[in-house]
Amino acid sequence: MVFDYTQYYLDLSLVNLSKREPEWVIEYNFSSYYGINDITPITLHSLADKMTPNAPNNNPLFTRYFRANSVRTFNGPQNVCDSYCAHGHFCAITRLDFLEFEQCLKAAASALASSAISYARPPFQLVLTIIGWIGFAVGLILENLT
Fold first, then answer.
1. Where is the Sphingomyelin phosphodiesterase C-terminal domain (predicted)?
2. In a domain, 12, yes or no
3. Residue pLDDT, tens place only, 75-94
4. 55 Cβ neighbours under 8 A, 6+ residues apart
5. Residue 35 falls inside a structural domain
6. Which residue range forms the structural domain that includes residue 91?
């Protein structure tokens, strides 16, 4: 069982410029950051439901998730996550089976294609998100098997 999760980061640019010893810094603590008392399938499902991909820039919880997920990569206002991007993250969070994930993405692409807006392939950050959630899921499964 996972009781909590703390995300750390290392600012390589700062380390390279200052020639100091690397210092890992806490980015966030999962339960505190998202305001939940325990990490269970039910609380994670509820959290994901609150991050619906509709109007991601008007959803403070999704904005908070996106900032944490990108680990200080996209901190500027020019790096917002549009509806296509948000839907990709939502699919990655809620679909652990690859075929379901792929169907989820296709549903978003189909809906967005009808809006006459052209979107490129999912960003590299989405690939990292998928890898992260898969690793998280595998860890939970292995933990429960032992």
1. 3-108
2. no
3. 555 567 778 888 888 888 88
4. 83
5. no
6. 40-145
